[in-house]
């Protein structure tokens, strides 16, 4: 599992530098504020754990909970003083890339779940961000820097989507195991 976490951390940090491509660099303050730090951290972990329960695997569920916090490593670019937008990893291309990397470093039999975790983490993480009042995301970065502003009540929809992705991954693995397809 350490290998999976290390791989996720590397992608999260490297991907965040893509925000330097933004034509109009600007700093957005990170969503972690000291008095609320414990709530933010535990909130992200809990949302990640809940979303990944259908995977029914302790290591995969723990990875998802942890990665739901690690995705915010994209704040490092701001913390290091780069004039960039704040949440570059909160994007669908990042979910795809992190999923591919996790699938590649994991064992073959877990590839589907590990790929799905890239998406489960993104949706569960954004769900708590929205719940906590952080509503603007560049969901297509670095393909497009348009800002998508979500409504507060989207948090529930996003968490349900994350749970559904877990379910689909779990069902797909079971079906493969039984030889229903593949
Ligand atoms: Zn965030």
Q: Radius of gyration, rounded?
A: 16 Å
Give the uncertain stretches in residue-range form.
none
Number of helices: 7
Count of discrete domains: 1
Give the strand line-up of the largest sheet: 1-2
Bound chemical compounds:
zinc ion
- In this structure, how is the largest beta sheet organized? 2 strands, antiparallel
SSE topology sketch:
Blueprint: H1 2-16, H2 37-52, H3 58-70, H4 76-79, H5 92-105, H6 111-131, E1 136-137, E2 148-149, H7 154-177
Antiparallel strand pairs: 1-2
Helix pairs in contact: 1-3, 1-5, 2-3, 2-6, 2-7, 3-6, 5-6, 6-7
The structure holds zinc ion.
Describe the protein.
The protein has about 180 residues and is an all-alpha fold. The protein has helices at about 1-15, 35-50, 60-70, 75-80, 90-105, 110-130, 155-175; strands at about 135, 150. A two-stranded antiparallel ribbon has the order 1-2. Helix 1 runs parallel beside helix 3 (about 60-70), helix 3 (about 60-70) packs across helix 6 (about 110-130) and helix 5 (about 90-105) runs antiparallel to helix 6 (about 110-130). The longest helix has 24 residues, at about 155-175. The radius of gyration is 16 Å and the shape is globular. The mean pLDDT is about 85. The structure holds zinc ion.
Features:
182 residues; mainly alpha; 2 strands
Question: Concise description?
Answer:
By secondary structure, the chain is mostly helical. The protein has helices at residues 2-16, 37-52, 58-70, 76-79, 92-105, 111-131, 154-177; strands at residues 136-137, 148-149. The chain is built from 7 helices and 2 strands.
């Amino acid at each position: 599992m350490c290998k999976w976490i290390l791989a996720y951390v590397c992608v999260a940090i490297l991907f965040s530098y893509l925000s330097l491509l933004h034509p109009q660099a600007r700093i957005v303050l990170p969503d972690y504020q000291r008095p609320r730090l414990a709530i933010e951290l535990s909130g992200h972990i809990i949302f990640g754990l809940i979303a990944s329960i259908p995977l029914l695997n302790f290591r995969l569920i723990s990875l998802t909970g942890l990665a739901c916090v690690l995705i915010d490593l994209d704040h490092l670019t701001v913390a290091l003083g780069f004039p960039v937008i704040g949440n570059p990893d909160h994007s669908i291309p990042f979910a795809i890339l992190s999923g591919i990397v996790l699938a590649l470093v994991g064992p073959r039999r877990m590839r589907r779940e590990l790929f799905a975790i890239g998406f489960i983490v993104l949706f569960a993480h954004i769900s708590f961000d929205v719940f906590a009042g952080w509503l603007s995301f560049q969901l297509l970065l670095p393909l497009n820097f348009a800002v998508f502003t979500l409504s507060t009540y989207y948090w529930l929809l996003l968490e349900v989507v994350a749970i559904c992705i877990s379910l689909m991954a779990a069902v797909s693995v079971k079906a493969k195991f039984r030889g229903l397809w593949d």
